[in-house]
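A brief tutorial aside. Many learners find it easier to grasp structure tokens once they have seen a single protein encoded end to end. The record that follows does exactly this for BTB domain-containing protein. Read the sequence first, then the structure, and try to relate runs of similar tokens to stretches of the chain.
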Amino acid sequence: MLAYNYSPSPNVPVFHFIGMSSTLDLTQETSMDTFKRGQLWMDDGNIILIAGDCSFRVHRSVLSRHSQVFKDMFTIPNLDIQSEEIDGVPIMRVSDRPSELCTFLSAMYDGISFCSPDAGLPFEIVVSLIRLGTKYQANHLQNMGLRHLHPFLSRLLEEEPKKPSPSLDETWKPECAITLVNLADSLDLTDILPIALYGCCQLEMSIVDGIRHSDDIVERLTPTNLKRCLNARTHLVIAQSRVMSDVHFCIAGCDCQRRDNRDECLAKTFLVRTQPHSPGLVVWNPLRRLDMWWKEISAISLCTICSSVVKTFYIAQRQRIISDLPEMFCLTSTSNAYCGA
């Protein structure tokens, strides 16, 4: 079993040149039997990228066109020292996962046909585009990944994506929140990290065990982020209790149309509030509990004014919980007191 560990400086590309010397001009020939041939293998390619035990024969010109990092590297003066070769083609080792590098290169070569604007992308492809697009400064590929990340973030907040795609349900599972936390933490995606941590809080044993990817690599939270999740659960319980205690009073002061029988609307909202939680609903998921309450409250007959007041309350409380997430996870400069530090 392989374990995936993040580099302390994930934004800095890591390249390993084999057999390089500042004084010798020697070429070492490596057998192709040493590496598996990847999906991207161009017979006329002039550079071979090796990630793990997988090799990809591609073109320097294509890499340079799409990636500022590769462009700068290939134009470095005096970078004419011979390295290890396969079939006479120089090779370059990179520190990426083979599956992610394959996705990244495929997006370079296939362009618009790689992804239709209206179609969803599988989660692992989205992550690959964001991670390597950032690392290699291929901004258009990074942005492609970020555009397709929204449905997955919406799922973590218990919202339905505006345009559900078949690939979403085929590739998404709750443990993907672990990957999102590591991605956001390593690339400093501050808007994503609180939402991803919230998703991890809903996991059971997998919050410790991690997620196993399709290439058999197991990915886990860092100790710091695991601690953030476990500590934040207390604050999520408090947030849920606060919202559920407030719902009964959200229409108490409104100008109810049933002025002569105001208790009717109040009694209905109180009945919904006091209904037991659905089986399996954890107490540290206030957004889901609030959404369930709204679904239940929408099904009962309230007067027009009370219905409007309740909807306004629901939207405001939902936004309040989301806005409070950075403090709950100690991600803000003012969160020390909030977290009891």
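Self-check: Residues 2-221 form a domain with the Potassium Channel Kv1.1; Chain A fold (CATH 3.30.710.10). If you spotted this yourself, you are ready for the next section.
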